[in-house]
Structure formats: structure tokens, C-alpha cells
User: What shape does this take?
Amino acid sequence: MAVSTSQASAPETATREIFMSEALREAIDEEMTRDPTVFVVGEEVGVWGGAYAVTQGMLEKWGPDRIVDTPIAEAAIAGLGIGAALTGSRPIAEFMYSDFMGIAMDQIVNQAAKNRYMFGGKAKLPLTYRAPFGAGTGNAAQHTQSLEAWFAHVPGLKVITASTPYDAKGLLKSAIREDNVVIMFEHKAIYAMRGHVPEGEYLVPIGVADVKREGDDVSVITYARQTHHALEAAEQLAAEGISVEVVDIRSLYPLDTDTILRSVRKTHRAVVLYEAVRFGGFGAEIASQIQELAFDDLDAPVLRVGAAHAPVPFSEPLEVASFPDTAQVVEAIRQSLQGVY
Amino acid sequence: MAEQSPVSTNGRAGGDDASNGVLEQLSDDQLRWIYLIMRRIRRFEETAEEAFRAAKMRGALHFYIGEEATATGVCAALDEGDFITSTHRGHGHCIAKGARMDKMMAELFGRTTGYCGGKGGSMHIADIELGNLGANGIVGAGIPIATGAALGSKLRKDGKVTVAFFGDGAGPTGAFHEGVNVAATMNLPAVFVCENNQYGMATHADFANAAAIHNRGPAYGIPSASIDGNDLFEVYATAKTAIDRARRGEGPTLIEARTYRHKGHTVLDQKNYRTKEEIAEWVARDPIERFVRAVNESERLDEDDFQAIDGQIEREIEHAVAFAEASPWPTVDVIERDVYVE
Ligand SMILES: Cc1ncc(C[n+]2csc(CCOP(=O)(O)OP(=O)(O)O)c2C)c(N)n1
Ligand SMILES: [Mg+2]
Assistant: This one.
């Protein structure tokens, strides 16, 4: 099996393009085939096929003992995952929207994250939580949040997120095989994005960032959907002779600080880009690591680009302006280059 | 019926148009109001659906069509200053609590003149002045809030009652249990109205709820009722008894109203988890048609009354759409406004 860390290093022969949602389905399907203790549990994962169609057709294939529909009961879904994992199963528990994890916060934060530690290392939780996140869908304040920093802050949880179908599949497979609690945040706006996914099996390791575009002048450190805004900004600025490197961290915890520092030591400038509320968001952790560990390499302050200090508004002109777009990333890169803030 | 205890056991079969004496207790003005509200809800949503299909609005729209008698019957029994909490499927509750359709339509269009200035959309319309404490994107979340409103009323001795509307899908939530139990332990002036429209998305109510929701009343030591939610008169009478009881300080009641959404879960839902026959069966029990039949038989209102109301609603609808379309879009300087009291 190929363990590859980058889309660039995937087998040359495979040119198949599939949706992110299909890539995730393949990951689940392959791991269910590989390990009979893997099962899916969540709201509308069966008959409906998943709110974002990730588990479409899986109830028909696997039956109700492996694709388990639940009532609306997020605390129970989180707990079902914990209990089953503690006793020998390898559950994949889905939250229909990451916003609803608020209802399950005790089970995730006080139980799942801490059981192993509190029990002196005696417990093992091979548990994956999946949750759609992010804005841009017109679904207003309670269905669009980016809350990943809440979870990355809690020791005992691993937190991952993908920007491409390739990474999504490889990361989710790694998560399912992990003996730790992994939360995979899936950006809603890119479920329908197509991308190259080879036929054969591969894993993307958790805790390894990926340089999605190489460049010399500025590093943009980002993840999930914002990676695409960074890539678009890089493309636009290339026309002006500005060379932008785009680092997709892929994993918030553990964080691949080495790859981030390597990039910043090369470009000497960093823009940290994320879709969550800018204040107190995960980008603050990245920015802080950079200035602590690469202060002497920096030619400009580390900039953060994030969402407005507000719940996500419904109305389209407000919603689209409330979180970063390509134009804002371009602007931030220029600011970093000019040293004008 | 209004004199009965709300503890009833499904005494009336669905499809029975006789009002069992309830109609006679309602004034002509009340009958006109009930028809006006039910038809407003229906026409508002039909119009919103057209606008959505014409790509004039976006996001999620959850239609209440087919369930009009529940919100209308309950709100007909409330006093003006009373409170409600609503759900993601909230247009009906909103209209029944007296909301203006122009401001609702403008909200769905995302305009500044909408109830929330375009910040909330369909799932978050609130009108605190009218006592509507908000639609809600989180299933079950309105239940503890209603309990809190009822606690506030008890402490302030303001004599008000709060109704929590929620779906069968909220029955399994922790919020339901905590909210209802607390209201029962504190004997609060709250009425919990479950709109059992048989499904939460593709999940059948009986799959999601281990025991029928109305059967939980005894578990909390409160009266409960199982009623035909498409029978305006039964809804009104049951709600009136529960609301009067709450107002007298005798505590909460749990009402389960059986009804059905004619449309999909959202405007985009095209899935086949319900049979055509089942849908047709429930469309045949249309709550508005049943109300009109009963009123016609009683000869209390005539065709002119209904036509006058229909005409009024068409003018309101026309105005609401024109108002929404002509209203300005919000500008980006308001994004960070309204987060806090300044
Ligand atoms: C806590 C929570 N979990 C899941 C959802 C997603 N969701 C929205 S509506 C719905 C079904 C609700 O069913 P029900 O309460 O019966 O209301 P209905 O849609 O039938 O009116 C679900 C699962 C949500 N909004 N909130
Ligand atoms: Mg329902």
C-alpha cells in the first residue's frame, strides 16, 4: 500500500476524478470491508443517505447493523461512539452539522477526550467523529459555523480537515484506523468538488501538512476550503511576478509545525488564513508558533485572515462578505509584502 | 370539550369534521380570524416556494403546509401578550402569532426590511414584541427556552403563558426531557405542543421515539393529550384547556397533535421515504378544507366571508412580494452590528 503525503506523489497512472463526498464514501466503504468492527452511526445516515450524501447507498449495501440511523440525539450519538469504541468496535459517528456538536460537548470533551488519560492509559478509543462545517450555503448562524478551534484546544482529540478529495479519502482512512479519537471536519462547500483520487488504496497520515503550491515570496498557511482561495490568490499574483507558497496543514492537532516553519524560513512572510471567526481562531495558534520558533526569519508580522466577529448572517451579500474570499487573501498577501498594516 | 380535562385518549378519529360543539363557542370574528390565518400561512408558503424556484431566495425553506390547524388552533387560544417558541418549520407559528407577511417575505429575501434585517432568514424569524421568541435551527432548542419564559412569567407574576412548538423529531432530544421535566417540577405556566407530522426528515416518528410522546405526560406527572392536529376545533379546545390551566398556576400540559407536512422536509427534498398513497391520504384530510366544510355546514359564515378574506390575502401577498423585492439589500457595514448591545 502506498503511503503518500501529497497529491503530487499519487500514482501517475490513475487519472480518475471523483467528488469529495464520493471519496469519503470510498474511505468508509473500504475500511468497513477491511474491518468488520467498523460501523457508521448518526442521523439520516441510512435511509436518507447522509445530509451531504456521503453515506448514499450504504444502507442498501451494508444493512442496518453497519449503517445505524439514530433519532435526533447528538449527545447520544457521541456517547454511542465512545461506548462502542471502549468495548471493541471501531465506530464512525456522524454529526449532521458540526454546529450540533454543541449538544454533545460533554460526551466529546469530558468523556471521549479524557477517558484514556483519566483511566491511566488503560482505555482505548478507536473512534472517528465526522462533521460538516463552514459557511456559504445560506443556512444562517446555526448551520454554518467553523468551530474546529474548540476541539483542537482539547487534549485527547485529534482534529483533521481536507481540501481535496484525495486528502479526504486518505485522511479519513487513517482516522478510522487510529486508536485515538479523531474529529474530521468536512467543509460543506467542497463536498461537490471533484478531484483526482487513484483507484488503489492509499493513506494520508494524520499530522502531516502538504505544500499545495510552492513559492518564494509569501507563505499562506491554511486548511479546508480556504486552501482554494489561497491557490486562486497565488495564481492571480503569479501574473504580477509574486510567488506564493500555499501550505495546507490538513491536521490541526497534531500540527505539522516543521512544514510550516520550513516554508516560512524560505519566504520570510506568513499569512494565516482560516474561515472561523478570526478572534481566538486556530490561526492564532499557527501565528503564535511561527513567531515563537521563527521570529528571526520573519521580514513582516504574521498576518491572520479570518471571519468577521459575528455569527454567520443569512443574507447573501452579508454572508459572502463575512468570511475570507480570494480578494481578501490577495489583499493580505500584498500587505505582508509591503509591510503595510 | 373546552371543559374537559386535557387528558384525552385520542377520542376522535381523523377526518371527522364535526366540531363537537367547539365551533359554537367561537364568535364569527374568531372563525374569520382562523380562516384568515390558515389561508395566510398556506398562501405565504406557496408564494415563497415560487420565489425560491425562481432563484429569488436561497437557504433552507421548511414548509408548514398541511399543518396549519395546529399553529392556528393553539394561537387562537393564546392571549396577545403570551409567548411562543418555534422551530425550523416556523412560518405557520409566526403568522399565527400575528406576524406581518411583508416583513417575513423580506426576511426570506434577505433584505433590510425583514424581521431580522436579513440576518436570520426563514429559520430564525422572531418577533419579541408579538411574543414570538423565535424560530430555531436547532431541533428541540425551543423547549427549554419556553420553560425559561414560563419561569420568568411565574417570577414576574405577569400572568402570561408560553407555548413551545416542536416536532416529533424533538421527542428524542435531551432538551425535550430537561425542558419538560423542569417545567413540571416548578409547575410553570407552559404548554408543550408536539407537532407530530410523522417524520423528521426521512425518520418516522415511531422509529425515533421509543414510546409515543403523549404517553410521557404521566412520566412527568403532567396532563397530556393526543389529538388530531388537522382538526382546528380539537386543537383549539385542547389548547384552550391547557392554556387556561397554565394561567391558573396549575402547571404545564403536553399535547401531541397528529398532522402531516404535504411538502418535503425542505424545498429541495425529493426523496421517496413516504408513499404517494400516504401523502394523498393526508392531503385529503387538509385542515383548511375540513374547517371550511364544518363552518359551511354550520352556516355561520357564507361564501362572501371566505371570498372577502381570500381577496384580502391576495392583496397582502402581492404587497409582501413587491415590498420584499423593492427593499434594499443590507450593506456589509452591518455584519458586526447587533452582536452585542452597544
Ligand atoms: C439538534 C439538531 N439535530 C439535527 C438537526 C437537523 N434537522 C433539522 S430538521 C430535522 C428533522 C426534525 O424533525 P421534526 O422535529 O419532526 O420536525 P419536522 O421537520 O418534521 O417539522 C433534522 C434532523 C437540527 N436542526 N438540529
Ligand atoms: Mg416531524
